Amino acid sequence: MYLVTRSGDPFKRLEDGDPFDLPVITGIDPKEIARDRAREIERVATGIQILRHWERIGVSKTHPAQEVHLTAGGDAILTGGKGGIALHLGAGPWRKKLLMAERVMQRLAGGGRTPGVVFLDNAAHPERVVVRMR
User: Fold this and answer.
1) What is the pTM (predicted TM-score) of this model?
2) 24-26/65-70 β-pairing
3) CA spacing 20 to 30 A to 128: which of 69, 75, 98, 99?
């Protein structure tokens, strides 16, 4: 595990004494960094961009980001909160999809319910959201 700059460039291997409560970006293969560093740094920057969008959304206060997983195909999954709600974002636009997730999560919270997985990755019908309850 590495600490990265705001632009996604890894600068330091994680060691004792470093911050440990930061979100984790997964799906980056060290072999791929060695092969195509610019592309992988761009992917990490995408994960950081998703985290920044999430932090600006109110529901992130009750469900802070834990992990952004980036797939080789360009999709992203944001996991947040202590219960690990998975937001399957697919490909961007990130902000729009995160705002859709917030609306769904707020509506469910109004009824005292919490989703387990929110699917926002339907490329054919991006306006559709599917929820799997716990």
Assistant:
1) 0.91
2) parallel
3) 69
